Here is the input.
Amino acid sequence: MHTVSKEIIPSFPARSFNWAMSSAMPYSAALMLAVALVPVTGCNRGHSADVLATVNGHAIMKPDLDKAYAAQLGEAQQQQQQPTHEQADSLRLNVLRELIDEEIVQQRAAKMNLTASNEEVDAKLAEMKAPYTEEQFDQRLKASNHTLDDVKHDLRRSLTMEKLLNKEINSKITVTDADVTNYFTQHKAEFNLIETQYHLAQIQVTSVPSPQPGNLQGSKATSEDEAKKKIQALKNRLDSGEDFGSIAMNFSERAETAPNGGDMGFVAESQMHADPMVFAAITKLKAGGITDILPLLDAQSKKTMGYSIYKLISREPAGQRDVNDPRVQQAIRQQLRDGRSQLLKNAYFEMLRDQAKVENFLAEQIFKNDAH
Here is the structure.
């Protein structure tokens, strides 16, 4: 979302090597189904002006498109970049296609009795609200221009999508030991680390202004004195045994890493030499250890811009990894599973589109008005 300025990011970037950390890519109906549907053209048919499209007779209404369009346009509007007439129409068509694709999926799930229940939605909502007080959650809703009903609506659709994909795709994917061995044999060089890698997490505090600090508490130091007091208070809590990831999520001011508990991924040793003080402190640690408070230096001026505390999660020495390494196995299995899942999703959604009857009245209107 929001990012802190480059001046306050450590001079070595967070970078992971492909087998060491595996994570499932997040997805949404809008991203997975962002393939254009061919609009049905023809003579005008009777329908309300507020009906912009239908999917198997189910209407997609103008207010729904307007809301989704405003959400996508929000960042450009904040930067005072108003789209041209053609750009606005193009964006509206893209957003409408996403709504059409989502509706196709939701109808399929309903037909298979896979629509998320009220209990499932409430459980997911409670999970979302857990890190916040009621007041903080309400403030976040207001800031995002969403109501609680909006959130429940979106949760129901995403949970329904997840249930459908688990039933129709994920349950059908298997990765055998032979698959893992064959992949490793063909990509052995990928598992040969040419230098030591350090898996790090960071808590960062700085007095440099930023739009959003990225942590759950919205906690931000606004002066050098505040930054010093805040980082010392956090170090005291760590020394008393509090969880590093929880502290980072709630108070760290590096927006890229705070939501992940401060996790920076794997950093190559050569990158860490850019800041000798940090490198020296980290190389003294055993896995699980944390550094003292360290100054955060501006990459160009070398002036102190804030303060950091680092945690060494693990150290991976250079050398060839073996196929029997559990982390190698896990990474390969996840990569093969993700690849097969994406292929099946593409084919599955293409089939759903072919089976659906879609009428895109907005596309017809734009074509009629702009074709000369």
Remarks:
- DSSP finds 13 helices and nine strands in the chain.
